[in-house]
Amino acid sequence: MTPFTYQNGTLFAENVSLAQLAENYGTPLYVYSRSELENRWKAFDQAFGKQPHLVCYAVKTNSNIAVLNVLAKLGAGFDIVSQGELERVLRAGGDPKKVVFSGVAKQPAEIRRALEVGIRCFNIESHAELDRIQQVAEEMDQVAAVSIRVNPDVDAKTHPYISTGLKDNKFGVDINTAPELYQQAANCSHVNPVGIDCHIGSQLTEITPFVDALERVLALKNTLQEQGIEIHHLDLGGGLGITYTDETPPAISDYIGALLDKLNDPDMEVIIEPGRAIAGNAGVLLTQVEFLKPTEHKNFAIIDAAMNDLIRPALYQSYQDIVAVTPREDGLQAQWDLVGPVCETGDFLGKDRSLNLQAGDLLAVKSAGAYGFTMASNYNTRPRAAEIMVDGEQTHLIRRRETYDDLIGLETLIEE
Ligand SMILES: Cc1ncc(COP(=O)(O)O)c(C=O)c1O
Ligand SMILES: N[C@@H](CCCC[NH3+])C(=O)O
Questions:
Q1: Which cofactors is this protein said to need (predicted)?
Q2: What are the pLDDT digits (tens) for 29-71?
Q3: How far away, in angstroms, is 276 Cα from ligand 2 center?
Q4: Which domains does the chain have, with CATH numbers?
């Protein structure tokens, strides 16, 4: 059940009118539903039943500290890829012992900070990174728990830019060479290999690639056991897709159920790192139509949100549904290209959308809770949007709109 429904002709987030939010806070505006975030995280958590598990929300998806705090209160773990994300988790009240640290190039200072606060595990992505973690841990006289992120070379059948488990991706290490690297890790004085990690891509809409990847991971676990290396957890990454338009991703319970069937080991702890499947459909981006510009060849609706606010359509040609907040029948009915004010031809949020519009109308770009605000930029010196969390009838401003001082204040003139 989506938290975004029409009530008396106007789109609401839970019990709050999006038209009212636009009036109070301006546009562009990100709006998230607390109940949707909670329900989706809980669906992952509950699908595991009695299997030992940890659902580590991927912070990069939507890293507002209020979002992290809502999930931390449920007992969430977190998948991070930088010290910045770690600091967010800590400020949000997240438990460092439930944090896994992914990413291809963790800096020494980041590793130090993660060891200092006692994170759960580092997901190592290369031989060089193993050396670096061993060195930092030794300097601190600590032992770092690690997994090695392996590349099971399965086709995730998703957009090439967001597929990560193939041989020619920069992520992880070839699963065939992993036993050697595990042996080196086991021989390190300040590193303890405790898990196996893999993440094959994002926006997957089929179960098979996940199960194929797990099969290869299980074979590796057995090989390691023969080498005398005991594995205590399997981290199977994130990647479960959502419905943007007509995709039919598996239900969370079916996805987890298929993994547990294949695993067939009630004692093995399973970590997962879902992002999009928790936050994606918990958010919309509200925007206002500035001008209508119908031409002989194309009809443009120029809106106040742009590629700097939501880059997915420009970057991946991805489709996100765009609906009128208060649908009308007395405007101009046409196929519209919804374009922003940024000076780039690629600045669009939707193309050929059938809508009945007038200047001043409010639109909601759906499925914007994941990889929306976190990928926003200040291109064209545009302040980033404000963010709102709705909770029943309540509205919380969880990030104020940026000011021009926020944007320019870090810069200084050269002295002549
Ligand atoms: C290592 C890692 N874990 C988890 C995720 C979250 O992925 P998703 O949002 O597709 O669940 C990502 C992003 O793809 C990732 O790179
Ligand atoms: N940012 C991408 C997904 C990449 C996930 C990061 N590993 C998207 O919007 O679909």
A1: pyridoxal 5'-phosphate
A2: 999 999 999 999 999 999 999 999 999 999 999 999 999 999 9
A3: 8
A4: 4-32+280-408 (2.40.37.10), 34-276 (3.20.20.10)
